Amino acid sequence: QCIQKRISEYFSRV
Amino acid sequence: MLELRLVQGSLLKKVLEAMKDLVTDANFDCSATGFSLQAMDSSHVALVALLLRSEGFEHYRCDRNITMGMNLNNVSKLLKCAGNDDIITIKADDGGDTVTFMFENPKQDKISDFEMKLMDLDSEHLGIPDAEYHAIVRMPSLEFSRICKDLSSIGDTVVISVTKEGIKFSTRGDIGNANIVCRQNTTVDKPEEATVIQMNEAVSLTFALRYLNSFTKATSLSETVTISLSSELPLVAEYKIADMGYIKFYLAPKIED
Fold first, then answer.
1. CB neighbour list of residue B4: distance below 8 Å, 6 or more residues apart
2. Is B257 close to A2, i.e. CB distance below 8 A?
3. Nearest CA of chain A to the CA of B75: how many Å?
């Protein structure tokens, strides 16, 4: 079973 | 006051076509550096970053930094009214709530202008640090597009692996499974036909094919695509826009539960 990661888990808001 | 004149108007048409299926609304930022955009798809799985540098415009006037919120589908509709050889000028007043797109045909005997209302959008701007990637692969953009399309007729996800052997795209579905390997190939007639693999460390990641297929809408902007992969980072697919900048697509991987 694969979970789709989100972009915000890698890059933070500026 | 903002006034940007782009002789190769078809570039802007292609840029909108490349983004409009992925992103609905986005803020275009205009500064002395250039005309840029950063936006995520509605599920926040993919991100697009666009830069058209000021030097690439025939005329570039941007008195102060300005952010213009637009619905990309509407912009695309307007740009469809421009001919492929038309010169496109984008105009806006500081503090105004509209943007004007002006199209001039090459003979200069037809001039159209379209005014569009701007939108107030909550901008969520992410900081993307420079990173060392485990593997960077440059390949013909048409080849990448073909691979994504072919594999999506079999499965929904693709495992992209880079080893010394090459870059491997694998999928599986109800009817079976498929593997496509592209080896490094630099003995080609034209440099843009080459597949060049720079690998510091082998890497293997899983991605949803529908996003990759959406990224390939940018294929007409560049003959090559550069795919960067690291086990701890989203994939980056970069299409360089000749003399102007780039469109980069970031895609978060799927991770084993």
1. B30, B35, B57, B59, B60, B61, B62, B89, B90, B91
2. yes
3. 25
ipTM of the shown complex = 0.97
Residue of A nearest to B233 (CA): A10
* Partner residue facing B45 (CB), from A1, A6, A11: A6
Is-contact B123 B39, C-beta < 8 A?
A: no
CB B217, CB B18: distance < 8 Å: yes
Identify whether the C-beta of residue B68 lies closer than 8 Å to the C-beta of residue B4.
Answer: no
Which residues contact residue B16 at a Cβ distance below 8 angstroms, ignoring those fewer than 6 apart? B72, B75, B76, B79
Q: Do B124 and A13 touch (CB under 8 A)?
A: yes
Task: For B175-218, write each residue's pLDDT tens digit.
Answer: 999 999 999 999 999 999 999 999 999 999 999 999 999 999 99
